[in-house]
């Protein structure tokens, strides 16, 4: 007879939020899981050199919260050593095991063996020498023309009721310029993310360790195909491309309605994406725009994804009074995802969406 375990997987980019932990705790209270995996990206926030000192307190608040009191085994991994530029990823992963859950083991990547999980294990440092976690920053020579940023992945491996599985925290590259993203289809940024994710899948599937079903969840920074989307949104508009005086470089793209007093329908700059009818991204969970969400399809040979039943997860307003409003900095997109290998698909029960933190990224969870 099969044994099933209630597992909660949560991913949250906390780059613009580092003092509020109510969202994950409320989620735990409502779903009552036995095993929880929390994957965080951009630990320490945007100004991590100043804020990283608060990292331990952030994780301690979650660990010591009332909702976590019945989880007697905890494993915490936080890469906060920003002085190690060649390896710093700003990733943080927390795992909670309920006191009713038995027969759970964690893999030691050095000894290549599983060990019983007990007590509270906390690693808040560079993570070098910690053998129950694998962490990599993407190599600098991947994209020499772009700024080397704190992007990479972090993997742990578990056995739950005799079933091995990898849980992988991922943070891929963002779109640095809305204008450059509109230049081609797919964009140069999309190509970079594709290379990075192929690298992750290759690393967690290579011959160093026995193969295992895997769950990839984090901030993939997947974006809508900007060129195709803008062409669609501006079908009935007059399009003006404004270039800088000193060069042929595009400074802004302005789409004006042909009637209605030439009202500006869409205004795009390097870090501005202002669309007049923003509700289209929220209505019916933005389903009308899913056809422009193309990046994940390149990986259907190795991964699957549950049907998306939530609106674009980025870039939400950071104002508490406007939790469902998008900022006009980027085109809304489904950046935060939960992807699973074909061999892990059979473990999935249902997918839920949670929007609870005033952050640019909403939290995505799967149970």
Automatic annotation (TrEMBL):
GO molecular function: inositol-polyphosphate 5-phosphatase activity
SUPFAM superfamilies per UniProt: DNase I-like
Enzyme class label: hydrolase
Gene3D superfamilies noted in UniProt: Endonuclease/exonuclease/phosphatase (3.60.10.10)
Any one of the GO BP annotations: phosphatidylinositol dephosphorylation
Ranges where the Inositol polyphosphate-related phosphatase domain occurs: 3-361
Coiled-coil parts of chain: none
Protein's name in the database: inositol-polyphosphate 5-phosphatase
């Amino acid at each position: 007879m099969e044994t099933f375990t209630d597992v909660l997987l949560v991913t949250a980019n906390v780059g613009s939020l580092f003092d509020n932990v109510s969202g994950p705790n409320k989620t735990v209270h409502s779903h009552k899981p036995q095993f929880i995996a929390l994957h965080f990206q951009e630990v320490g926030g945007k100004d991590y050199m100043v804020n990283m000192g608060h990292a331990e307190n952030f994780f301690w608040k979650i660990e010591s919260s009332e909702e976590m009191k019945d989880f007697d085994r905890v494993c915490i991994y936080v890469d906060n050593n920003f002085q190690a530029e060649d390896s710093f990823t700003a990733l943080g992963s927390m795992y909670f095991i309920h006191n009713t859950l038995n027969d759970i083991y964690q893999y030691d990547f050095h000894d290549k063996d599983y060990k019983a999980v007990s007590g509270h294990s906390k690693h808040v440092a560079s993570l070098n020498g910690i053998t129950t976690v694998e962490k990599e920053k993407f190599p600098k020579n991947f994209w020499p023309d772009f700024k080397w940023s704190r992007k990479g992945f972090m993997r742990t491996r578990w056995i739950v009721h005799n079933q091995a599985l990898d849980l992988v925290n991922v943070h891929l590259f963002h779109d640095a310029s809305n204008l450059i993203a509109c230049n081609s289809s797919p964009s140069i940024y999309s190509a970079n993310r594709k290379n990075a994710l192929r690298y992750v899948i290759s690393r967690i599937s290579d011959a160093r360790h026995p193969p295992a079903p895997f769950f990839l969840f984090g901030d993939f920074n997947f974006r809508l195909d900007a060129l195709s989307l803008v062409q669609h949104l501006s079908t009935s508009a007059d399009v003006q491309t404004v270039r800088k005086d000193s060069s042929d470089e595009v400074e802004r793209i302005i789409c004006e309605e042909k009637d209605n007093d030439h009202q500006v329908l869409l205004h795009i700059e390097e870090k501005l994406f202002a669309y007049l009818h923003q509700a289209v991204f929220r209505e019916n969970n933005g389903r009308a725009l899913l056809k422009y969400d193309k990046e994940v399809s390149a990986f259907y040979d190795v991964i699957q994804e549950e049907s998306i039943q939530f609106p674009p997860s980025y870039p939400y307003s950071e104002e508490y009074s406007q939790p469902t409003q998008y900022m006009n900095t980027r085109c809304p997109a489904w950046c935060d995802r939960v992807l699973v290998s074909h061999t892990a698909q059979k473990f999935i029960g249902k997918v839920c969406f949670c929007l609870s933190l005033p952050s640019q990224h909403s939290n995505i969870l799967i149970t």
